[in-house]
Every structure is written in C-alpha cells, then in structure tokens.
C-alpha cells in the first residue's frame, strides 16, 4: 500500500529547528512503514524542494500538493500532535472510507 504519513510539520511553531525535528520524526515513522513492505508518502518531502528551489509561497504549494498526493494513497498514518494540515489529509481518507491508522502497529504487513 501507499501510506501517507500525516503529522505536524510547522503547526504552532515559528522555529525552523522545530520544523526540522518534526520532519525527522515523520521520516523515522516512514522508515518503519517501509520496513512493513509499504510505500510511505510524506507531503512535505515532496513540496519543500519545490518551495525552496523556486522561492514559491509555502501556503500556495504545501497543502494543495499534499492533498493531491493524499488522493492517490491507499491509507494514512496520523502521528504526532495538533496539525491542521495533517487533519485535512486524514479527512481525505475519511471521506473515501480508506484506512486511517494511528500507530505503525495497526498497519498490516
């Protein structure tokens, strides 16, 4: 399965170091999903290089791109704390009645 990893990245923080730590956590969880035999997808990993290399607006690129990727995934793993963006990603799966996991342990091998 293609499994979106949805969790906080910038929510509630203006601190780039916190963003970096959040991204590390997303990628660590993605690795656990990969070890289960699935393909992990993280919206911020796809959007940030475009934003950084074109100096485009974070707001114009991040969520539209991430939500479009959510439409193509088979399931979502919601991790971490509060995140409006992650909640919007989860809603895509809820609307389509696709699996929503809250722990790597819930994901089938």
Explained architecture:
The chain is α/β, with parallel strands linked by helices and 109 residues long. The protein has one domain: Hypothetical protein PA1492 (Rossmann fold, 3-Layer(aba) Sandwich), CATH 3.40.50. It is built from 4 helices and 4 strands, in the order βαβααβαβ. Strands 2-1-3-4 form a 4-stranded parallel sheet. The termini are close together. 28% of the residues are buried.
Topology:
Elements: E1 2-6, H1 16-35, E2 39-41, H2 43-54, H3 58-70, E3 75-78, H4 84-95, E4 100-101
Parallel strand pairs: 1-2, 1-3, 3-4
Helix pairs in contact: 2-3, 3-4
| N-to-C series of helices and strands | EHEHHEHE
Helix content: 40-55%
Give the structural class: alpha/beta
User: For the record, what CATH class applies?
Assistant: Alpha Beta
> What is the straight-line distance between the termini?
10 Å
The CATH homologous superfamily corresponds to Hypothetical protein PA1492
Spatial ordering of strands, largest sheet? 2-1-3-4
Number of helices: 4
Per the CATH scheme, the topology name is Rossmann fold
Provide the number of structural domains.
Answer: 1
Globular, elongated, flat, extended or rod-shaped: what is the shape? globular
Low-confidence stretches: none
Can you summarize the main beta sheet? 4 strands, parallel
Q: Estimate the strand proportion.
A: 5-15%
CA radius of gyration is 13 Å
Q: Just name the CATH architecture.
A: 3-Layer(aba) Sandwich
Number of strands: 4
Write a concise synopsis of the structure shown.
The protein has one domain: Rossmann fold, CATH 3.40.50. It has four helices and four strands; from the N terminus they run E-H-E-H-H-E-H-E.
